[in-house]
């Protein structure tokens, strides 16, 4: 049992919970002190919910432990560090490093979109993190601005919230058929249930880069049905701000996962832009990717492939204008049937976003722990209204950076 004190609670006889940093539908995140080592940490708590059945409570507990196991396998400067996993009063707690700073979503809400150079820096860091995770057989499956932290003072980019990650050799928590994740950032092959692989995380990165540069996902719509249609069927129209990084975004948002731009090529293109101010149409060979520095081992039960991708050709004079990206007719049909079936069945947004006992399905905390708060805490920076959202037309070719 945790011990109660004046405005504090100690769990496992070691971690003193001092300040609530955020709360979501699934968990509470605390700023805490490790009394043994005398350091500040973030503690993610799974509160008791008396409305849950024993089976549902067990699934939530399994989710928390699963997140800890996924993170414990990973060691990378751009992935959140897990220090400990403890149980107190039959509830699990994940003890993580405390990141002083908000999420990328907070940054976009408070200060607006980032420029192309900053987006490239964030993309390079996340590609390194994903490369390490995929090499270890871990798929994140919920890459979005809420789950990317920006450390104050160092600008370190940290990938967090592996709560719905898929780990090779472990059973999934979504076997009941429910979908978990964030539809605006979910690859079409996951939407249709066709496959899930490292390429799905890369699609999410493409949508995240669009959001970082413009303030919102290119698949943002007013309804869940609209989002599903945009992801799996509709023409993809990236905002004008994506121009400098358009070749990378186009490659990552290729609907056919076998043709999607792979992590190493995407990183080489982003590094070239960072150094020259222009994004090449095909990956230059001179830029060694960060993922190559991570020791590679073949994961069990998860095929990590490097799909080939054809060079992206911009439209030009004499070339008929085409939608930004298309998918094979067969997959369009499957996706359209999926959307129609979901609409006809009256699937709720809550079911798609959260699923039963899996995924936080909301906005992420401004702390290092991966918890989406439902209401802002007094300890965090005040919420500011988001800038008006516009949806400019897609450029036909990447605009050079001055």
Automatic annotation (TrEMBL):
EC number: 2.7.11.1
Pfam families: Pkinase
Record region (Disordered): 178-197, 275-324, 355-402
Coiled-coil ranges per UniProt: none
Residues involved in ATP binding: 44
Gene Ontology molecular functions: kinase activity
Protein name: non-specific serine/threonine protein kinase
Native source organism of the sequence: Streptomyces iakyrus
